[in-house]
């Protein structure tokens, strides 16, 4: 077992006074999954309702269990952990998209989640999706008009012919992910939460998106980055939080936390 | 001057105290009702773009595309006319039964599709809700707007039917506009309320078609509800007369048809229509707003 590191973060902060941007105070997150039951018969369901047993087809997943940390302005924090350790759920809660069940998350301004899961309308053309996505992020129609060609250019979906005017259901998964990332990356953010966004697309697009993330980072106050690519975490983040089964296993400088994590994963 | 990490003045503070000192706010906190309304207003472009997109997506895979917007109400009217007008010949003493029937069908269909769409507007868009931050009321509002656009094409069909069946054009036709606007406000409120209910009670999606069918029979779509008064106790008959959808349907009939029988006097109908719109609109909006934080949980 690896003991928890208690290393004071923010060593790299250049500010005189460290200004907190995100505070997580003993956060618990539970989400409900409907329709999780397998192989229930109508009779069994009726019996359950009559006997007032807890709903079998609604399962609660305790994804984050008592996480506390403080993030400061100018920090880039990597979130690592095995699959299902609660990283994405935590990011959603920081973005205010999921309410905390216990504890609280305090943030400066409105953090933005830059994920590849943003559901767009598959029956619509890529171009229309760009417009919708930008409007949903709160841009004005003029801004959207100006940015749309840039976003399509950046996503590179038009490199193989005019795909921007085709419905998104005709896109390959890589193309769709690239477009989603490009939409989300078009806006400036105070606190930016990046969820596996860099893992999509081909090498060329990844290089371009990494450059864009560095730009965004320069503009943003604080960045959280979820990634399974340890290399990306090493390159971008000076602080790393390691989550395992919803609890913080370690929180400290990347140089210390990542080797521990790698040792753990090899076991 | 600069405090070191060791002598940090912030050490020893709880999360809440630290947050208060630096002016941090709780993530995803529900705005005030006024603040929420302002937010919603600033998202009006998103709402209309989303409503349009849904409309386009609805017919995207059909070869005839948006022609179906007109074909759907037309086909519906044809089927009901065939069964009730031709085969069963249920005129019920109503002049111009086909126009009477079409008004009922189209106006009711507007509310029906909005209610069903509203029920699923949160559960069906969880991906979007969990990915982006926008006032959630935008979704049920967009559903109402999408169906309003369908209603307009249905109204074009309806006016054609009304004219073909020999109704004269009168000034009263102008009353169509306020009647449908009041109904839209009513629908938007119901859609908001149903959206919150539907996000909590997932079985509603299965239940709603039955609720809507019952509602249809009580709204005098296919016949005059005067028949009910003969078979129901007085209090139930009053309840049926106050039925908001009956009120909106009767108002449209009153506007377009010369000799349509009304269950209540026109001023009373207008009063009811206004009251229902106000009640459902404000009630639904406030009810939806109170659940704003919860919609991401699913």
From TrEMBL, chain A:
Ranges for domain ABC transporter: 44-265
GO terms assigned for molecular function: ATP binding
Keyword Calcium: no
InterPro entries, sorted: AAA+_ATPase, ABC_transporter-like_ATP-bd, ABC_transporter-like_CS, ABC_transpr_TagH-like, Bact_Polysacc_Export_ATP-bd, P-loop_NTPase
Transcription regulation found in the keyword field: no
Keyword terms: ATP-binding, Nucleotide-binding, Transport
PROSITE patterns reported in the protein's UniProt record: ABC_TRANSPORTER_1, ABC_TRANSPORTER_2
Pfam families associated with the record: ABC_tran (PF00005)
PANTHER family: TEICHOIC ACIDS EXPORT ATP-BINDING PROTEIN TAGH
Entry similarity comment: Belongs to the ABC transporter superfamily.
Protein name: ABC transporter ATP-binding protein
Lineage start: Bacteria, Bacillati, Actinomycetota, Actinomycetes, Micromonosporales
From TrEMBL, chain B:
Topological type in the membrane: Multi-pass membrane protein
Primary site of residence: membrane
Spans traversing the lipid bilayer: 67-91, 97-116, 137-165, 171-195, 269-288
Presence of the UniProt keyword Mitochondrion in the record: no
UniProt KW keywords: Cell inner membrane, Cell membrane, Membrane, Transmembrane, Transmembrane helix, Transport
Ranges of residues in domain ABC transmembrane type-2: 64-291
Protein localization: Cell inner membrane; Cell membrane
Pfam families: ABC2_membrane
The organism's place on the tree of life at top rank: Bacteria
Claim: Transcription is one of the keywords in the record: no
Family indicated by similarity: Belongs to the ABC-2 integral membrane protein family.
UniProt protein name: Transport permease protein
Organism classification: Bacteria, Bacillati, Actinomycetota, Actinomycetes, Micromonosporales
